[in-house]
Design goal:
The N and C termini lie far apart (103 Å). Strands 4, 5, 6, 7, 8, 9, 10, 11 and 12 form a nine-stranded antiparallel sheet that branches. A three-stranded antiparallel sheet has the order 1-3-2. A hairpin with a 6-residue loop joins strand 2 and strand 3 (39-41). It is α+β, with helices and mostly antiparallel strands. The chain has helices spanning 5-12, 16-24, 43-57, 62-69, 74-115, 148-157, 229-232, 234-242; strands at residues 3-4, 31-32, 39-41, 120-123, 127-136, 165-171, 184-192, 207-210, 214-223, 245-247, 252-261, 264-277.
Length: 281
């Protein structure tokens, strides 16, 4: 039984160009009529097209499909299918991780509307933080000298672990939040105590621990390249005064998002400021 190319193209919604491509790759072997140069396919070719289209939907490449046609044993077929199954499973995991990252970003952006320039009291969990880029004056801090390879793994890892965020830690602030030449900002990552075992780098001196504390929490906005620390802490400073609180450690912030607003790049950050109440005399 012979079927014309036109009929196959219409039945499988394939263009003539697509059929010619299958011919070039050896999927089909059409027969040309010597009288009118029309091409036709036999039943085996039709089955090959059906199978090829199905495998393409499953993610197989034309090259892989061509190799399938050359397999002569079930063990070969089993090995090939299992390998493809593992590949697809990994792709599914990668896509899910990407979706989780986007969902986290959406949740963080929702924080802006609820907390922008508002202060609330939160009890924080224990945190680990990895510092890899301290900047500012003063020599009290030094880089942890994380190897480039480890740093790249950390950057990839933080996209997948739910509680990890990039952070800035502000050291050297006085109790009235005044910024001096000794104020230093550290850049790095922080993650919850529960995610400790997921960190892919060695913990020997590279990761510091921040015990659970009570914080004043707020979402703030500042210039992306050159944040004005006085402005960032202005309303938090007022909240401390009104509620008779005092600074009890180094504040830190986690980045939510950066957008172009007011003619420049602005960065929204979730600010965590540890505090202690003044003792009444």
């Amino acid at each position: 039984m012979k079927v014309k190319i036109k009929q196959i193209a219409e039945a499988y919604h394939i263009t003539r160009k697509g059929l010619h491509f299958y011919e070039e790759k050896g999927i089909v072997n059409p027969v040309r009529d010597e009288n009118n140069s029309y091409m036709s396919l036999d039943i085996e070719d039709i089955y090959s097209i059906f199978r090829c289209r199905a495998y393409q939907k499953y993610g197989f490449s034309i090259k892989e499909i061509s190799n399938i046609d050359k397999m002569y044993s079930l063990p070969e077929m089993r090995e090939m299918l299992y390998s493809k199954y593992c590949t697809l499973q990994q792709e599914i995991q990668d896509k899910q991780r990407s979706a989780d990252v986007i969902l986290r970003q959406l949740e963080n952006i929702n924080l802006v509307g609820e907390n922008y320039n508002k202060c609330s009291i939160l009890r924080g969990v224990g945190l680990y933080y990895i510092t890899f880029l301290p900047v500012g004056r003063g020599d009290t801090l030094h880089s942890l000298k994380i190897q480039d390879g480890d740093l790249e793994r950390i950057k990839e890892w933080v996209n997948y672990v739910p509680n990890v965020a990039s952070f800035k830690q502000y050291r050297g602030l006085s109790e009235d939040f005044s910024v001096t030449d000794d104020t230093v900002t550290d850049f790095g990552y922080c993650f919850a105590e529960s995610d400790r075992e997921l960190c892919p780098v060695r913990m020997d001196g590279r990761v510091s621990y921040l015990p659970p504390q009570t914080y004043v929490f707020s979402v703030v906005k500042g210039r992306y390249q050159a944040p004005d620390l006085e402005t960032l802490f202005s309303h938090i400073r007022e909240y401390f005064k009104e509620n008779h609180l005092k600074l009890a450690g180094d504040p830190f912030s986690t980045m939510i998002s950066s957008v172009f607003e007011d003619g420049c790049n602005q960065q929204y950050e979730a600010m965590w400021v540890p505090f202690a109440e003044f003792k009444k005399s």
